[in-house]
Amino acid sequence: MPVERVEGFRSGRTAEEGEEELERGLLLTTIDRAVGWARKQSMWPVTFGLACCAIELMAAGAGDYDLSRWGMEVFRASPRQADLMIVAGRVSQKMAPVLRTIYDQMPEPKWVISMGVCASAGGMFTNYAVVQGVDTIVPVDIYVPGCPPKPEMLMYGILRLHEQVRTEGSFK
Length: 172
Ligand code: SF4
Known about the structure:
Layout: H1 15-23, H2 31-41, H3 53-61, E1 84-88, H4 96-105, E2 111-115, H5 117-121, E3 142-144, H6 151-167
Parallel strand pairs: 1-2, 2-3
Helix pairs in contact: 2-6, 3-6
The structure holds iron/sulfur cluster.
Iron/sulfur cluster (SF4) is lined by residues 51-53, 89-90, 116-118, 123, 147-148.
């Protein structure tokens, strides 16, 4: 099984002694780091697409980009089985309470990615019918800019979130 080299790994030993431990198949870490690592390795997004950005989201999950490399290809149909909401597209005022309900039904800990300028700030829809930033409805962890963001941009956002989850500690 490949060993993941974790940046900031602290074992109280020198780098050489740490390498020696790894070669012996032994790795010392803290509960916090182990929990953060497990959480980032087992993130499941809820099925939730709102507009054109969702096409790029679907492309990210398909063969060419392949979210399954991070075990994330199964978009859950139930919010109770998901811990990541990717808000892909503009959020209408009518959809806002539905979005909040779905978020509330997701178990803790949970994270939100705002995908595209419409979700993050209303985009071109500067009118009364569209929410001018989904962070007024749910807490957002990562903003992915663009209209639409390419799958690579979303994947970069996911990697940044993984890094955040790995290092934020187990008591979010
Ligand atoms: S950011 Fe662009 S692609 Fe995404 S929902 Fe808005 S208009 Fe559509």
